[in-house]
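Customer ticket, subject: "Can you confirm the structure for Esterase lipase?"

Message body: Hello, I'm evaluating your service for our small team and ran a test protein. I'd like someone to confirm that this is what the system normally returns, since I don't have a reference to compare against.
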Amino acid sequence: MAFIMMNSDYNVELSRLNQIESVDIPHLENVKMIVKDRVDAHSYEPMIWDHLKTLSDDPQLPDDLTQLRAGNQKADVITSDSTVRIDVEMSNKLDREVRYLKIYRNDRNLSTEKALIYVHGGAYYGGSAEDTLPFLRLLAAKFNGVIYSVDYSIAPEKPYPTAIQDCLSVLMNVCDKHQQISLAGDSAGASIALGVSQLSSNMGVCEIYKHILFYPTIVQGSDYNGPLWNDHLIPINPEQRQTLHNNYTQFKRLDKIMTKYYLNGANYNLSAPLISPMYADPLIFKKVLVMTGEFDPFRLQDEAFVQKIGMAGCEAEYIRYGGLAHAFLNYVGKIPAVEDALIECAEALNS
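Agent reply: Thanks for trying us out. I re-ran your input and got the following:
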């Protein structure tokens, strides 16, 4: 596994990040906030910089599903190792057939009290449960419970609200097997997870213990000239400012594309709480941990969301990783901050 192959510099940086404690940030009221900056503060992590520095000043995205999904095909083979087991199972709740992966530590002393339902990212139109295995294997080794990674139906072939219903089916299928169930997801998957939490609460399915959100998509159809997309609010090395702006421009276009495919042309109200969790009743989300990269184009909406949770009197925690951009879980085993985020996730779930 890639995450086992660590050099001394990797371990030193991981140790440094793990020792950083919460700080008081005035503009995020009632939120426990931890800022894990790089030693070279306000600059991109080198691996991410190498990827983003090639962006043009007017980056284009193909509005073509074949191109958008390129390189994101589902793996055919799932293997278990001596540490972590992976089983393929199905849920037929809500008259659906939903495939999911059961991921758990190969340990007879493993507790079955706790469970995590994980929802993969992929802009609503891509991704699979297999995409989560590189980092969920590592999380499973540290989490004293069982992980269920949902292979939900993707848009536009199966548009909103299908993905939310698929994940709710899995939740209903496993809720009687565990005493404490949490929800997690990355990017669009985190948004879907928040939709599942709302339905679970309103339908009386079960109480969600914690919500662990990696760089979530919180608002659909937001004002691209408004404060949630203002990259000038983000401190950065002046030499990298243009690249940050280019990445924000790229994500504004991605946001439009993924909303279009997610809803498949239907004229839904984009401020509906299941579509845009920013507008949900924050009291539903009793305990929330959000983890976002410093230069993620969704950072400002993530901060607005977690502050809303905190102001409602819920337990809100926010961890911001210096130098990281969107989809940083893809760098597991390569960037120490990613492993640190998974350690933070495991500690939150185990507590």
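A couple of notes from the result: The radius of gyration is 19 Å. The first helix runs from residue 8 to 18. Feel free to reply with more questions.
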